[in-house]
Amino acid sequence: YHCPSVTKELNERSKMKFFAVVTLTCALFVHKAAAQDGCPSEIPIKDGCVDYDQDGETGGMPWFDASGPAYEGGPPPGCEWYGAYWDRCQVDGGQHRNFGMTACEACCFCGGGEVVKVGPPSNKPTRPPTPAPTFAPVRCTDIPNWSFRGNGCDWYTDQDSKENRCAKYPDDQGSGGLTPGEACCGCGGGDHWV
User: Fold this and answer.
1) Which of 4, 8, 33, 49 shows the greatest Cβ crowding within 10 Å of its Cβ?
2) CA 97 → CA 78, 93, 123, 135, 182, distances in Å?
């Protein structure tokens, strides 16, 4: 990114002060340009908003992005991960499309999701809340025999590699027309089961 050209008549006394203003303007411009990969900033979370699931609905298997695990052995980043820090949506929310959506579209915290309409309040007594359900851990297996030019899921998810190959090569279309984000658990794909 480069800063826009700024011209102004300067005299000897104001050179340093103007340099600081131009530097600040350039820093803000570069920050805004870098945010093109993310969601628009300062979007308030909508009341009654529910994150989209993998099917673009609400209430199913949670959506996650195609970047691969956020840390070794961890799950791929989902809406909860994006909402944990204030700048994740602005920096990465528009990248790593998975299940046809980015975090900007799937996650309430990033400005996406769906507002669930609630009817008018009732004066009838309500029941106490039920305890939250517990879910069995979701397991994942890579799509058997999937590869792209001889490289299978092991190559894309190699933890010893210094590059995130899932993110670097997301469009590699291998066996069965699947990408690593669709075929490999470490890239956010694979077969998920309980």
Assistant:
1) 49
2) 11, 9, 44, 26, 11
Average pLDDT, the chain: 75
- Return the bridge partners of 148, or none: 151
DSSP 8-state class, residue 98: B
Q: Contact, 52 vs 112, CB < 8 A? A: yes
The predicted structure's pLDDT at residue 148: 94
Please name the residue that has the structure tokens 């799950």.
Answer: 75
Give the total residue count for the chain: 194
| Full DSSP string of 36-79 | GGSPPSSPPPPTTEE--BTTSSSSSSBPB-SS--SSTTPPPPBH
Q: How buried is residue 75: exposed, middle or buried, by Cβ count under 10 Å (0-12/13-18/19+)?
A: middle
Render pLDDT for 150-193 as a digit per residue (tens, 0 to 9).
Answer: 999 999 988 777 788 888 888 899 988 999 999 998 888 888 77
pLDDT over 80 (residue 19): no
Query: Which own/partner contact pairs does 23-32 have at CB distance under 8 Å and 24+ positions apart?
Result: 29/1, 29/3, 29/4, 30/1, 30/3
Q: How far apart are CA 113 and CA 86, in angstroms?
A: 17
Taking only the tens place, the pLDDT of each residue in 65-95 is 988 776 777 788 999 888 888 788 888 888 8
For residues 105-131, average pLDDT: 77
